[in-house]
Amino acid sequence: MSLQDAVDVLSDQAAGRLVQSRSQLIPAALALDTASLDTTSRDVLDAAAGLNLLARGGDLLLDQKGQERAAHLAMVVAALYWRAQRGYTGRDGVIVFFDGNVQGWVDGLHNPEHWRPGSIAVNELGDSWVATGGNEQNGAKSWEPEWTDGRRLTTS
Fold first, then answer.
1. Distance (Å, rounded) from C-alpha 132 to C-alpha 108?
2. Which of 2, 23, 82, 131 has the least CB density, counted as fewest CB within 10 Å?
3. What span, in angstroms and rounded, lies between the C-alpha atoms of 137 and 88?
4. How many separate domains does the chain show?
5. Per-residue pLDDT reduced to its tens digit, 33-44
6. Number of neighbours of residue 102 by Cβ within 10 angstroms
7. Quick count: other Cβ atoms within 10 Å of Cβ 120?
8. C-beta neighbour count of 26 within 10 angstroms
9. d(Cα 91, Cα 59) in Å, to the nearest integer?
10. Distance of CA 105 to CAs 18, 87, 96, Å?
11. 18 with 54: CB under 8 angstroms?
């Protein structure tokens, strides 16, 4: 069972690709089911429910907003996986991504100038913020909320 399988399946859904392999889907659903036992994160619970539906032979026919949600859920699960692999579960803080890749963990949202604009920070509940303003050389100007409690707050 791998949370990486769950990230891959959610990323495929976000890109509008149908799941091709039940051999990947079933372990992904089981891994997220197990992870969801220890969380109150609406995002992890939503991702687990979606993968369970797919594992049971159902379809998720996602529109653009659904694909955006799947992309967010993939990032939330990737952050959960990163934390679990490195002993950061339960340490609060945020996992920071840039171009879809984990850049690291920080204890809170401060110093946006240390991050490139477009970086995304995800906390353990699945809430996320995007680094905005500034430039690549001098870093971002601020952290703006992007997703909270399963709802997208920005339109970009």
1. 16
2. 23
3. 29
4. 1
5. 888 888 888 999
6. 17
7. 23
8. 17
9. 36
10. 32, 11, 6
11. no
